[in-house]
Amino acid sequence: MSDLFPPVPTTLSLFDDRPPPVVRVIDTETAGQKLSEDAVIEIGSVDIDLASGAIVNPMRSFCDPGGAVINPHARRVHRITDAMLDGAPPFAEALKSFAGAPIYAAQRAEFDRSRLRLTGRWLCTHKLALRAFPTLPAHGLQSLIKYVPLGLSPVAPLLAGEHPHRALYDAACTAVLLAAITAKLLPRCADLADFLERAERVSLEPALLARFRFGRHKGVDLARVPDAYLEWLLREPGVDADTLFTARHHLRQRGIRGTRVLPAAAAG
């Protein structure tokens, strides 16, 4: 478990400075191009009250792609046709209905945040699920629905007639995932404000992987990966940020920085 979520004693604040517990869970479908050439073609969201678990206020809108070419692979995934986009509002106009939330959450928040550019705090449910459910075999949204498992009955009316990789469908499922993550990690926090603060920090950092996705120790429990291999990753050029972050984390958990063993007090 990450050191950002150690158990802490519950203490009551003398001041009512708790953040609003409502999070807007949002998803986008795009033309499937690189960021500079991409276009949002559908936005979907729901609001979840983290205190009660209630999922409300579903919203969705198609967006005019503004001349961007829709990648054939992306179209096969989300199945959004040109006819469905006919008459859709421009992106800037469609976005107005989704703006103004103090906190947003998305399964891959870096992707959605870069395309929506909505101001506010952002939570990444993918990175949080890696902390809450590290032993699962996979952490994509559909895998989490299967392996947590997630009960989708609270959002069943929103899923009727829809399919995965449509914006409202994925936003509703991600809201159920966020509720499960909160239930798992909130007991380790002082209160909801503490949980949201730590969840935001996790969301801004690289992902703490449950297992490596390549190499000699691909798919192996990180506890069984040798120190020497973790140290080699830190020296190897071209290693991605998530892998480097994970290697450093586990070396530090073992009391090692580089090849130097840290004193016990500094290694905690």
UniProtKB/TrEMBL annotation:
InterPro entries in the record: Ribonucl_H, RNaseH-like_sf, RNaseH_sf
Any one Gene Ontology cellular component term annotated for this protein: cytosol
Record's protein name: DNA polymerase III subunit epsilon
Residue intervals of the Exonuclease domain: 22-187
Pfam families: RNase_T
Classification of source organism: Bacteria, Pseudomonadati, Pseudomonadota, Alphaproteobacteria, Hyphomicrobiales
Entry's Gene Ontology molecular function annotations: 3'-5' exonuclease activity; nucleic acid binding
A Gene Ontology BP annotation from the UniProt entry: DNA replication proofreading
UniProt xrefs under CDD domains: DEDDh
Top-level taxon of origin: Bacteria
